[in-house]
Structures are given as structure tokens and as C-alpha cells.
Amino acid sequence: MMSLRATALVAVVLSVIAVPWLQAQDSTAGRPTAVMVSGPDVGRRAPTFRLPWANREGVGPADQPYDLALDRGKTVVLAFYPRDFTSGCTAEMKTFAAQYDSLFGPEVVVVGISTDSLETHTRFASSLGLPFRLLSDPRQEVARRYASNDRSGYMRRTVYVVGPDGKVQYRNTRFNALDPSQYAELGAAIRRSRGG
Amino acid sequence: MSRWWLAVGVMALCVLGTRRAEAQESGIAVGSRAPAVVIKDLDGKPVDLGQYIGRKPVLLEFWATWCEVCKALLPRVRAAHAEFGDRVEFFGVNVTVNQTIERVRKYLDSEHPPYRTLYDDQGAATRAYEAPTTSFIVIIDRAGKVAYTGTGATQDLATALRTVTAQ
């Protein structure tokens, strides 16, 4: 007869095996699924990375990728999002652009990050007139380090604010692009980061 | 025997917990109780959805003036309202992000959507219903439970509305 503790242990082990299997059965294209990793928490050092970029004017030089380490000393907003030209992402990026001055200000660096190609990024940034760069992370390597990757092939919508000291000052791992209160919360975090 | 039930219970909780995490961008779960949030209308008057939820079927559409998909969905919403409008309460929840109330009024004047428009400037409904995107439709049955959720321009609203009005 198994003890109560052994029974519970077996249950947990079975759950650990069963849950990823169930997720795999339920992983449908275009519908983000769970990612059970944490990413850097507030107060922890933000992982540095380099990624190719594009803006509304075109694709950035291949030998000059965006490098987070070079922005040490500035407040940086990393906005991971699922896909260019989709409704939620359009809402988020349009709002960032429309409220750029009040939300971020001139000394804050904003970058959007998705799996889209640089060419798609250019078309997206151009269509919305985005005043910031979009980075391409097709294999979700950087997204994985920020717990923003997803097996669906599209990133999860998350926002990180990295302070001038290179540490995470704010993060929202469930950023809802349609919720006005989340932009207000982000704006407050940026003001705190800038010491305002 | 009871230990096996304990094991099953632990597994079920783990699986349910994971499925909850999956819901980040898919909206409120079908079968869950619809939140009775209070949202303002365009004149700033509070509208308590609790006055309708649990009393009659309700359709909520989360929309925006800049949402092309919402515009493409409008004929289906109009058709649904024409068929079920006498038995179902239709609300259009404007998500307010990146648009002004003036622009919303202008849109309503030109498109005449068949629902009562609410202006979710605090994001209360967006959060409560976990609206993942505009064109997100939630249909709530007479008992106050979410019977249908969907997004996109080609949603089959009639089937869901036929079900909730037949109950």
C-alpha cells in the first residue's frame, strides 16, 4: 500500500509528464500557448542581446544590429509582440506611436520585437509611422531569455523596462494591448525609471 | 482508494492551472461565469452589465474605429441583430485605445452598428473578459455563462445565438 506522500509524488510526476503532452495536443497555430519560464524579474539584470532591426525607412545595416548593451545609461523599453499587422499588435504599436512623447519621451529607447522578417517590419513600421525600431527574432532566441517565446511560432505579448543600470525596472508578462490602464502603468514605470 | 482520488485531483489541478495560463491571448473561457462589470456609455453614464447578465442572453463585441476586421464583421452583426435582437442584448464595447470619443461618435454616425455602444476607458471590461483583440465577441447565455467566444470577420454568430435563445 503506497503512503500518502508517495501517492502525491506519483501524481505530481505524472502531471509533469502529462501537461506538456496535453499542451502539444492543443497547440493550435496562431493561438499562443503556455510557457512556464519566468524571465528576468524586476531588479535582475536584463540579458543583453543583439538583433537585426528595421524602421519605417528601411532595414538597418546588417553589421550594425541593435545592441542592448550599447544603451546602458538609458531607459529601454522592450516590447515583445506576436505579429506585425494583427489587430492587437497594431493597437499596441499605434498607441506607442501616438503617445510617444507622453509615454516615453525623447531619451527613452523603445524597440518592438517579434518573429517577423525585417522586410515585414519595414512595411508595418511605415504603415503606422512608428518612430522606433522593430527587431527581428525569428527563432525566438532573445524572446526565450525574456520568457516571451511561444511554441505557436508567435511571441507572447510582454513589456520590459530596462533601467539605465541595465536592470529590469518593470515587466508585464501579460500586457493587454487593448487595456488603457496598462499603458498608464507602463508610463508610470518609465517615469520612475527616469527619476521623474 | 481515496489516495488515488487525491492523485487524480492533484493532476486535474495541475492541468487546469496550465490551461488557465494558455488563456493569455484567447479570451475568457467558455463555460465561465460572465463578469458583471460596469462600463460607461458615450455620455458618461454607467451601464451595469449585471442588469442584463443572468436575465437574458447578451452579446458583447470589443471593437475600435481603426479595426478593419470589426468593419468587415459588421454585416454579420447586423444580420444577427435583425434575427435575434428582440431576445438578445447587444453591446459594442469600444476599447478606447488609440481613439477619441469624438472619433467613436463619428464612426457610429457613419456605420450605424446595431448595438448599444459602451466606452471602456478604464479597461474594466477588456480586463474582465481578457479581450485579446478587437472583433472579439462574447455571447453569454441566459444563465450568465459564457457560451461562445470568437474573433475575426467570419464568425458564425447565428449558430451560437440560436443555441442561447433556445435554452
In short:
The complex is a heterodimer of chains A (196) and B (167). Chain A is α+β, with helices and mostly antiparallel strands. Chain A contains six helices and nine strands, in the order αβββββααβαβαββα.
Structural class by SSE content of chain A: alpha+beta
Overall mean confidence score, pLDDT of chain B: 88
Topology as H/E string of chain A?
HEEEEEHHEHEHEEH
Distance between the first and last residues' Cα of chain B: 39 Å
Instruction: Report the helical percentage of chain B.
Output: 25-40%
Q: What share of the residues of chain A lie within helices?
A: 25-40%
Mean pLDDT of chain A: 86
Biggest sheet character of chain A: 7 strands, mixed
Question: How would you describe what is shown here?
Answer:
The complex is a heterodimer of chains A (196) and B (167). Helix content of chain A is 35%, strand content 17%. Chain A has helices spanning 4-26, 87-98, 100-103, 118-128, 141-145, 180-193, and strands at 50-51, 53-55, 58-59, 66-67, 76-80, 109-114, 133-136, 158-162, 168-172. The radius of gyration of chain A is 19 Å and the shape is globular. With 167 residues, chain B is an alpha/beta fold. Chain B has a 7-stranded mixed beta sheet. In chain B, helix 2 packs parallel to helix 5. Chain B is globular, with a radius of gyration of 17 Å. The interface between A and B is large, with 40 and 38 residues.
Spell out the blueprint of helices and strands.
The complex is a heterodimer of chains A (196) and B (167).
Chain A: H1 4-26, E1 50-51, E2 53-55, E3 58-59, E4 66-67, E5 76-80, H2 87-98, H3 100-103, E6 109-114, H4 118-128, E7 133-136, H5 141-145, E8 158-162, E9 168-172, H6 180-193
Parallel strand pairs in A: 5-6, 6-7
Antiparallel strand pairs in A: 1-4, 2-3, 2-7, 5-8, 8-9
Chain B: H1 2-22, E1 38-41, E2 46-48, E3 58-63, H2 68-84, E4 89-94, H3 101-111, E5 116-119, H4 124-128, E6 136-140, E7 146-150, H5 157-166
Parallel strand pairs in B: 3-4, 4-5
Antiparallel strand pairs in B: 1-2, 1-5, 3-6, 6-7
